Amino acid sequence: MSNDIKALKSGAWYTVANFLTRSVGLITTPIFTRLLTKPDFGAYNNYTSWLAIATIIVTMYLDSTFISAKFDFKDKFDEYIFSTLSLSTVSALFWFVIINVFSSFFADFLKLDIHYINCMMVYLLFLPAINMYQTRERYYYEYKKTVLISLLLTIGTAAVSVLLVIIMDNKLSGRIYGSASVTIIIGLILYFWIIRNGKRIKIEYWKYAIPICIPFIPHLLSLTLLNSLDRIMITDICGEEDNALYSLAYNCGALITILVTSMNTAFGPWLGEKLHNEQYVEIKKISKIYISVFMYMCLGVMLVTPEILWLLGGNQYLEAKYVMPPITCGVAFQFLYSLFVNVEQFKKKTVGMAIASISAAVLNLILNYVFIPQYGYIAAAYTTLVGYLWLLLANMYLVKRIGYKKVYDYKFVALVVIAIMIFTIFVNFLFSYTVIRYAFLAVYFISFLFIAKKYGKTILQKYRAMKEKKL
Prior knowledge:
Blueprint: H1 3-35, H2 38-59, H3 66-72, H4 77-101, H5 103-110, H6 114-139, H7 143-167, H8 171-198, H9 203-213, H10 216-237, H11 240-253, H12 256-276, H13 280-303, H14 305-313, H15 324-346, H16 351-375, H17 378-401, H18 410-430, H19 434-467
């Protein structure tokens, strides 16, 4: 079997696995919103927000260096993996010691019990083993093991978490320990596998990896802060119960990302090839369809906001309905900005990208401090939207500056941005008029059937052609 066929087959399985793992998380949300109190649900989301930040700092995403190391150390790749894993371990142990020496400070600053912070550190000690093993297998197109591990992690974590929440008196502890335990166990097993195959540690590999991964940390950290800062600040300013309301609405608003994961796996490699061949007219044509399909999905999610919140959280979370439309709009901006980031990465112009991400995170921080104390947790949805809008505009400018404005239709993107912002405001207005909202839902459903019948086959054919790089 050729590498092209292997890559296509493994890519398809990774997409299926990702969709299934994300779906399991969605399915278990109604369970946890009913088993946990609002303060506990809010506290857990505060924990996951800090975990996202700590993951970047502690693990340093050393597996991101594998894309070049596989070729630079072709005959010693397993040795390189073990060496970088040992570097990640040193980092995790360093932070574990620092946190426990200054335990009172960290517990107060993170608004977390020190036991939960230590659980986080143990989780981050073994998580890199899983990430590095799966990354290694992907480069060899060995998708079966990675897909199996992904499913075991997701289903196992969900099952253990539900079980611990049910049997433990402290429901929050059950949720946190359940979310970490399966990763720790599988990570420990893979840790020994990497040791056995790597055999020895070389400091020269550390010197190779650090200069590559360190510059990406500010960029990744800024994006993570943009995603997590609102929930952290809501916990600090408004309390865990408001964070619970916001977090569920935020997670629901971001549901649309599950639907486009499979499209992204095809569009990214296709875009790279078209950019390489300077086929800009084709990119502009297909990107309009791509953007239109995504925005259409976003509009549908906004219209069914109350139903989604009721399904996943129950009546006690319905008051958060005004959070979902701006969050969904922010996700739309996030999607749009990623299209421009793809071009910057292709041209290896990542410094501007990092500066844009940092500036968006700083803007979000300032806006949160100004508006959350005045308007509560709902304000955080709009500050996040503004942050992503800034990120989109900044990356549009950067792509134009490097001479690639011709890749996308800027006027079309501008019209899409204006249209979805108007619709976001309009949907919030519709929440007070259920009958009118249902009328719009009926129109949306009819238009969906019409588009599916008239253009569905064409869209699917173009997607398949894109995936097979025949378009």
